[in-house]
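R.M. (postdoc): so does anyone remember the format we settled on? I'll just put the structure tokens first.
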């Protein structure tokens, strides 16, 4: 009986592909691949900035330091934010395809909920870092004012790095829970 059911499912899947729509597994593979590539760009870029690009610049002072960090930001933001956006969209599609919060395993839903909260936190912290505190600190430097925003900016940057490392780990856990 089980063999007969799997044959029916197989012929049904084959029939759906004969009309031009890709089988579900191909869509899932595509979404996972795009999601993974977007995460690679975000994580790799973040790690490269934190451990390779920023440390030598920290030895500089004043306007030179601010100008170089501003240039890093202008170059990284379109790439990083695009990658993060793609990761969020493909992640939501993958969750929907896995029937999250419906028929997916209970543990999957809990990990997905935790990951979703951390993604929202990463988005909020990244926005503050890139578009509020970073430009605010640059204005303080240009005006010769005390750099009161620097400690908060550094703290949020470290939080972003931690979230950036934790999120792919949770993604791996989610994949394992579905297999």
């Amino acid at each position: 009986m089980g063999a007969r059911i799997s044959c029916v499912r197989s012929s049904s899947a084959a029939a759906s592909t004969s009309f031009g729509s890709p089988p579900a597994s191909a869509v899932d593979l595509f979404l996972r691949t795009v999601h993974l590539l977007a995460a690679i760009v975000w994580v790799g870029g973040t790690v490269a900035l934190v451990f390779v690009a920023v440390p030598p610049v920290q030895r500089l002072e004043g306007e030179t330091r601010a100008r170089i960090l501003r240039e890093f930001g202008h170059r990284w933001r379109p790439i990083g934010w695009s990658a993060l956006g793609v990761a969020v969209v493909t992640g939501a599609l993958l969750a929907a395809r896995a029937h999250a919060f419906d028929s997916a395993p209970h543990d999957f839903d809990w990990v997905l909920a935790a990951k979703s909260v951390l993604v929202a936190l990463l988005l909020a912290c990244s926005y503050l870092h890139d578009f509020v505190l970073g430009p605010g600190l640059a204005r303080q430097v240009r005006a010769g004012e005390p750099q009161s925003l620097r400690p908060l900016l550094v703290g949020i940057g470290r939080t972003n790095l931690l979230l950036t490392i934790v999120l792919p780990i949770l993604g791996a856990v989610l994949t394992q829970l579905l297999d």
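R.M.: ...and that's the designed sequence above, right after the tokens. Also worth knowing: The first helix runs from residue 2 to 18. Residues 25-178 form one domain.
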